[in-house]
Amino acid sequence: MSSLRARLLTAAVAIPAVILFSWAATELRAPWILGILLAGVGLLAGWEYLELVGRLGAHPPKELFLTAIPVYLLVAGLWEGRYALVLGWAVVYLTVIYCFSRRGHVEGFWSSLAGIFGFLYIPGLLSFFYLLFRGGFFYFLHFLLIVWGYDTGAYLVGSLWGRHRLIPHISMAKTWEGVAGGLMLAVVGALLNPDLWGRGLLPHAVGLGIFVGSFVQLGDLFESLLKRAAGVKDSGRIFPGHGGMLDRIDGTLAAIPTYYFYLHFILHLI
Predict the structure, then answer these.
(1) Where does the pLDDT of residue 3 fall: very low under 50, low under 70, confident under 90, or very high at 90 and above?
(2) 103 pLDDT band (50/70/90 cuts)?
(3) pLDDT in tens, 176-205
(4) Distance CA 201, CA 179 (A)
(5) Letter string b/e over residues 240-263, b meaning 16 or more CB atoms within 10 A of that residue's CB
(6) How far apart are CA 115 and CA 130, in angstroms?
(7) Would you call 174 helix, strand, or coil by DSSP?
(8) Is 64:50 a contact under the CB 8 Å cutoff?
(9) Could you give the CA distance from residue 176 to residue 180 in angstroms, rounded to a whole number?
């Protein structure tokens, strides 16, 4: 099966599922529905993250890490974050205590750091989806259109016309042409928001597409750097043509707070 065909088949299953969960959660005003999706995504991504940092010699407590991720995401949704901060602090302290009690000081330090960063990186960033919950389903869809637009444009343009490597010592597959194609489709996705048109915010739509698209690329590069350090090509194999869950959401993790901050603090829409 060709890489493009595998990607299309995976997208044909994954995209409707994500849209359905998002629509049901917002239309029914039931954040627990979104919580189920985020908990599943976070659990798979967390497992892959532990495998990657384990190759680098860091060993956060697996049972604590993989239990805390879905619990945190469900708690953040069900109680609107009121208890999530307390739970997060508990995870940080338990991680440090475990790592330093089970390992030497040096290994304990790096394992603690990897565990704390992983908790902020995966469930911490995924929880920003709950902030979009306030804006309704359309803002979920708008964000996803920008991210998927960037991914699609970068892949197609980079595959067809990519010649100039972006950062070859991190990823040989990324090209400047792909970045340009991704940003163009990210802007197209950002323009598909009648609310911005109606408010006379067309220049902001263009800026939003470029800003969010740039962070999608940065998230991709960060995970590529982590994979290269760990000596692997993909974080997992759950998605044919895409690799693992972390491969699929790396750009989304970096972009979701960017999208929210732009809409909330600059445009005051959410």
Answers:
(1) low
(2) low
(3) 999 999 999 999 999 998 888 888 888 999
(4) 24
(5) eebbbbbbbbbbbbbbbebbbebb
(6) 23
(7) strand
(8) no
(9) 6
Distance, in Å, from the CA atom of 208 to the CA atom of 218, rounded to the nearest integer, reads 15
* CA distance linking residue 106 with residue 101, whole number of Å: 12
Query: By residue range, what is the domain housing residue 133?
Result: 3-266
Structure tokens at 151: 């991914």
Question: Where is average pLDDT lowest: 10-19, 121-130, 173-182?
Answer: 10-19
Exposed / middle / buried, residue 216 (Cβ in 10 Å: 0-12, 13-18, 19+): buried
The percentage of the chain sitting over the pLDDT mark of 70, rounded to a whole number, equals 95
pLDDT for the residue numbered 82: 66
Sign of CA dihedral 164, 167, 172, 174: negative
Length of the chain: 270
Query: How confident is the model at residue 269, as a pLDDT?
Result: 87
Q: Is the pTM of this model over 0.85?
A: yes
Q: State residue 228 phi and psi, 5-degree precision.
A: -65, -40
Give the chain's domain count: 1
